[in-house]
């Protein structure tokens, strides 16, 4: 499983650079919430299949804090429950939020994966280039409410898994985070923004 994560990092390092002419969000943007599905580019598909030895893993360029929440960032700890909820178009998803300290408000490429402890993918690998908004205290940026689609809930419900994100920064550097979670259906009345 670590090899697949490292392969994703290497793929980001060797992938062609994204068009830097794409403007970031304006300071007047109210939110970078993904609850409304505002991503401007999405790609899903199988892993690139690159096999990388752990000793060649790059050092992160910045810190990423992984969380959940629809309209706010609720940090996830290892062992937390990641709730699966029904979407509006017949599928289901988990909510992912990301916070990055000391980076400017801009669009960043983010790679997402949710994989069971036995290596079975719960979500398809996905990447998006999305706007991150300034956090309320001004100490960084965040993305809230990204809906990571889970095609077959039976693959994840009641299972332990690893949620991972890799973020490409403004200068091409990478930051990442991962959390061991347990996937469960969201209970009635669940508030995704409650700590």
Largest sheet: 7 strands, mixed, barrel
Q: Give me the secondary-structure category.
A: mainly beta
CATH-defined architecture: Sandwich
Q: State the order of secondary-structure elements, H for helix, E for strand.
A: HEEEEEEEEEE
Extended strand count: 10
What is the CATH topology? Answer: Immunoglobulin-like
Percent range for β-strand residues: 35-45%
The CATH top-level class label: Mainly Beta
Low-confidence stretches: 1-54
Rounded mean pLDDT is: 79
Shape: globular
User: If helices are DSSP runs of H or I spanning 4 or more residues, what is the number of helices?
Assistant: 1
Task: Give the domain tally.
Answer: 1
Query: Oligomeric status of the shown chains?
Result: single chain
Report strand order across the widest sheet.
Answer: 4-5-8-7-6-9-10
Percentage of helical residues? under 10%
| Radius of gyration, taken over Cα atoms and rounded to an integer in Å | 16 Å
The rounded distance between the terminal residues' Cα atoms is 29 Å
Question: Could you describe the 3D structure shown?
Answer:
The chain is mainly β. The chain has one domain (2-15, 31-185): Immunoglobulin-like (Sandwich). 7% of the residues lie in helices and 41% in strands. The protein contains 1 helix and 10 strands. It has one helix at 2-14; strands at 42-44, 64-68, 74-75, 81-86, 92-101, 106-116, 126-134, 140-150, 159-168, 174-185. Strands 4-5-8-7-6-9-10 form a 7-stranded mixed β-barrel.
């Amino acid at each position: 499983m670590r090899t697949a994560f490292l392969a994703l990092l290497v793929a980001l390092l060797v992938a062609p650079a994204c068009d830097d002419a794409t403007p970031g969000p304006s300071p007047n943007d109210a939110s970078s919430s993904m609850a409304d599905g505002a991503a401007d580019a999405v790609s899903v598909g199988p892993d690139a299949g690159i096999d990388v030895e752990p000793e060649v893993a790059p050092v992160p360029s910045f810190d990423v804090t992984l969380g959940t929440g629809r309209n706010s960032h609720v940090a996830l700890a290892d062992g937390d429950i990641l709730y699966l909820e029904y979407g509006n178009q017949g599928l289901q998803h988990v909510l992912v939020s990301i916070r990055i300290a000391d980076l400017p408000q801009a669009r960043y490429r983010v790679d997402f994966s949710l994989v069971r402890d036995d290596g079975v993918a719960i979500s398809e690998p996905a990447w998006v280039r999305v706007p991150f908004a300034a956090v309320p205290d001004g100490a960084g940026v965040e993305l809230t409410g990204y809906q990571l689609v889970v095609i077959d809930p039976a693959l994840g419900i009641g299972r332990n898994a690893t949620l991972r994100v890799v973020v490409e920064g403004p200068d091409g550097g990478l930051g990442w985070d991962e959390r061991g979670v347990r996937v469960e259906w969201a209970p009635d009345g669940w508030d995704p923004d409650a700590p």
